[in-house]
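Hi X.,

You mentioned you wanted examples for the new student's onboarding notes, showing what a folding record looks like when two proteins sit in one file. Here is a clean example. The first protein comes first, with its sequence line followed by its structure tokens.
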Amino acid sequence: MGHQTPADVEAEVATPPRGARSEAVHQKALQAAAVLLKAGGLKAATVDAVAAASGVSKVTLYRHWPSRQAIAAEAFGMLMGKYLVIPDAGDPPADLSAYLADIGRFYRGPLGSVFAELVGACANDSTTAAYFRTFFLDERRRGFASLVERCIESGYFRADIDLDEAIDLFFGPLVFRLLVGHAKIDDDSVRSIIDHGVRGLRANPLST
């Protein structure tokens, strides 16, 4: 298989049928998939199970999604949006620390294992990866990028920061620990990772 560009992979995200009825069916299936994911992880969210729980036929499900992993990726993005909200209390450094602490707690909670399962599925299937990125990752990265930009505007971070690199700097260690299990993601560990990342991005590293 040749190398795929981001545009190639994003093209694998199918446009679901349009119209009020189709949208209602889409949301009904997503809600059912979310419940199944929370209860039993990715293995529980089969097409048969989603069809049975939602009352949406398998034929219709396949008109909306190409696979059960695609349904799960979109449903997980919906769940993540409910559980994690970017804070905006007027103090960008404090907002950043609070959000990353919430992320750490999310990863080590029940849904953290679902996240790990989906990341594993992405490694083996470009279509799953496209859905995961479109319905989960992209929105999370946009939200966190806005938080990093607020840290830049406040003078807390340097102005020459690459936003994508800054996002990976904070999230990379947490995701790696979640997937490999070689180290903890407890509150102290997350705080230490934040401190190390902040030092590299500070406008004035010597200031307190």
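Then the second protein repeats the pattern, sequence line and then tokens:
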Amino acid sequence: MRTQLIALSALLSAATPALAAPPDCKALSAYSEARDGLSLLVLIDGRPVCEAYAQGAAATTPLPLYSGTKSLVALMAAAAVEDGLLSLDEPAADTLGEWRQDPVKSRVTLRQLLTMSSGLPSRIGEVPTYAVAVAAPFNAAPGERFQYGPAPYQAFGEVMRRKLEAGGQAPDPLAYLERRVLQPAGAVAAAWRRGPDGQAMMPQGAAMTARDWAKIGEQVRARRAAYRDLFMPSETNHAYAVGWWLPNPGPGAVTASTDLGDGGEAIPRDLVMAAGAGDQRLYVIASHKLVVVRQARLRAESRWSDAEFVRLILKDSIP
């Protein structure tokens, strides 16, 4: 294990850190690496106070975010709202004409697609093409059931593709995301997988270094108020919002289960989290000016506890 303090000039801030003292880097690194952790990066008010790598990973090593990708897509949706391309609460059928005559699909909103409460089922790890996702039958009414999986985000990818095309822009959701989300944050996705249809995978396609993912976290922290609508608990799972996890009790999910809702008062209520398989994590805690990235090797079994890790981050550091 190699632990080092770093200087990331793009992330520096002159503001006073919110914590009385930096977290215990050795303790955080030990906890992460005991659970196959590969990278760890902690920023306080944009200033790096802990950076650690293990098992051959380095600052320049991009790692898959898996379902952490969904949180990037949520930020893309927020940008599309700002640009007047869409509203989160508009019917998906306004864009997906083939859904207009279906008594169930015609009622689905874009928010329900992104909170995975639309009624569109899918299998975790099996990413359909945009067309297959749009054509798939529903197994529940909109707003009735939380069903974690890739299909709703692929359907949203097709909505974005058609919205961009109708607006005279290149019909590539990834190009739009890079321009409106990654570039303003100064971040780069080192890779982004595409499906057999040539379209970018919306639910799990991105790979980033810890430093680049942290820049996304800093963007969220800086624009927390602007992203408020993304962080409203969904109607079917109060632990999940629009692409982001919240510290509320909920049913969880196979690929990104979390015990934040069981963490008690030690877990800040404004925490938001991007999460992916293998316990990939991006925590943003605006009240403490904290951004924390943790990446790991994908494993079949997990011993990761978000509640324990967040408590460790904040231990003896709150003034």
